[in-house]
């Protein structure tokens, strides 16, 4: 069941509707890693679903097949994301056309479900964000998102306690009953108050999820009665799976290598990843003068679309200014997790990247 049936599923969209979305990204819309049996993201999804099912039998229905193509209204306007918010910028979001995007978060579906009268949901799916390239960032990742409405006149303080109890329970379920957790204030346009739950893991506080009480105006847009309140939360699966299963690089989730898949044979949280090799990296630098509105994400997009998953990291190495002009130097690190790379292969990709940067970005190569 689609929350918004006017938007067809990605696979049945005619090619022309791909619009401005790069081919390499578009292909990901049919991968559905969160539904692939024994895949760590699928294991995590089912683990979260069964936690909620045990805690509140029959209350939450999971939807995992919603099309990632949504309107800007669903993704931003209905959730009170300000018009000038950076998350709406074409440097951060994949626009199919002016008012259709690849969803940047699963919360995009909440209002439509509430309009249909649903009072409790668990959603899981792929979300898309343009970003820099490193070990923990990939332009496609997966989220579990949830919403629950309470009976009329339920006190907001009670709803908040319920939310926080459900979520600390989830964190203990995933990280063990001796996990160290803390709540910090958060900010999301569609919840108020908002919180983030963090877990102390290997010496660091990691952000686990964002949540809060649904904003009155969002409930109003969703035609929810004025004495009804509820909560929402959202959580990214990749970061969580990387920590729980000890997966060192986010690209591994997309690997077709049997040596990856075969390590997750139990389909439970006790699976652990043992790195199968570390092949040498090849580094290439690219330097240019900036002539206009240059955005790092555009460079990363070019590197990714030409280098695919061989691109491990793109980072700023040097920046200087001369006679009012800015020069940037970026280092690109290439590595395969499956084989050794040849210099010829990387040189070809590197020259293609240089050419594409020179012709499509507001820069002059040095
Ligand atoms: N949608 C938010 C994100 O992607 C997470 C969130 C969901 C926060 C629901 C609060 C409530 O970061």
UniProtKB/TrEMBL annotation:
Could you tell me which InterPro entries the record lists for this protein?
Answer: aa-tRNA-synth_II (IPR006195), aa-tRNA-synth_II/BPL/LPL (IPR045864), Fdx_antiC-bd (IPR005121), Fdx_antiC-bd_sf (IPR036690), Phenylalanyl-tRNA_Synthase (IPR002319)
Q: Name one GO molecular function term.
A: tRNA binding
Where in or outside the cell?
A: Mitochondrion matrix
Q: Which SMART domains match?
A: FDX-ACB (SM00896)
A GO cellular component annotation here is: mitochondrial matrix
Main location group: mitochondrion
SUPFAM superfamilies, sorted:
Anticodon-binding domain of PheRS, Class II aaRS and biotin synthetases
Q: Which UniProt keywords apply?
A: Aminoacyl-tRNA synthetase, ATP-binding, Ligase, Mitochondrion, Nucleotide-binding, Protein biosynthesis, Transit peptide
Q: Which domain of life is it from?
A: Eukaryota
EC number(s) given by UniProt: 6.1.1.20
Q: Which part of the chain is the Aminoacyl-transfer RNA synthetases class-II family profile domain?
A: 44-275
State the reactions this protein catalyses: tRNA(Phe) + L-phenylalanine + ATP = L-phenylalanyl-tRNA(Phe) + AMP + diphosphate + H(+)
Q: Tell me the GO BP annotations in alphabetical order.
A: phenylalanyl-tRNA aminoacylation
State a single Pfam family of this protein. Answer: tRNA-synt_2d
- Please list the residue ranges annotated as the FDX-ACB domain: 277-366
CDD domains named among the record's database cross-references: PheRS_alpha_core (cd00496)
Family the UniProt entry places it in? Belongs to the class-II aminoacyl-tRNA synthetase family.
Q: Which PANTHER family match?
A: PHENYLALANINE--TRNA LIGASE, MITOCHONDRIAL, PHENYLALANYL-TRNA SYNTHETASE
Annotated function: Is responsible for the charging of tRNA(Phe) with phenylalanine in mitochondrial translation.
Query: What is this protein's record name?
Result: phenylalanine--tRNA ligase
């Amino acid at each position: 069941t689609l929350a918004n049936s006017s938007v067809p599923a990605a696979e049945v969209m005619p090619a022309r509707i791909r619009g401005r979305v790069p081919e390499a990204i578009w292909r990901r819309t049919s991968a559905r890693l969160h539904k692939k049996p024994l895949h760590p993201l699928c294991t995590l999804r089912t683990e979260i679903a069964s936690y909620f099912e045990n805690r509140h039998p029959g209350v939450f229905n999971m939807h995992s097949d919603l099309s990632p193509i949504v309107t800007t209204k669903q993704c931003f306007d209905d959730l009170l994301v300000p018009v000038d918010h950076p998350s709406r910028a074409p440097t951060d979001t994949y626009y199919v056309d002016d008012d259709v995007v690849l969803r940047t978060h699963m919360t995009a579906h909440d209002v439509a479900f509430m309009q249909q009268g649903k009072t409790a949901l668990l959603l899981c799916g792929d979300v898309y964000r343009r970003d820099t390239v490193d070990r923990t960032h990939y332009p496609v990742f997966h989220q579990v998102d949830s919403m629950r409405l309470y009976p009329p006149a339920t006190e907001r303080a009670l709803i908040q306690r319920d939310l926080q109890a459900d979520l600390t329970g989830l964190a203990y379920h995933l990280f063990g009953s001796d996990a160290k957790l803390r709540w910090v204030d958060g900010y999301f346009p569609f919840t108020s108050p908002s919180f983030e739950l963090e877990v102390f893991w290997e010496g660091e506080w990691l952000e686990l999820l964002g949540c809060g009480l649904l904003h009155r105006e969002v409930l109003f847009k969703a035609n929810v009665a004025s004495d009804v309140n509820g909560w929402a939360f959202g959580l990214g699966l990749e970061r969580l799976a990387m920590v729980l299963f000890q997966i060192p690089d986010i690209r591994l989730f997309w690997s077709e290598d049997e040596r990856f898949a075969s390590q997750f044979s139990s389909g439970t949280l006790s699976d652990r990843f043992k790195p199968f090799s570390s092949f040498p990296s090849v580094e290439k630098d690219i330097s240019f003068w900036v002539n206009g509105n240059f955005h790092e994400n555009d460079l990363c997009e070019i590197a990714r679309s030409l280098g695919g998953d061989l691109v491990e990291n793109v980072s700023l190495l040097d920046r200087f200014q001369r006679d009012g002009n800015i020069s940037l130097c970026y280092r690109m690190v290439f590595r395969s997790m499956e084989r050794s790379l040849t210099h010829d292969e990387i040189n070809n990709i590197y020259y293609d990247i240089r050419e594409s940067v020179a012709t499509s970005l507001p820069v002059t190569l040095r």
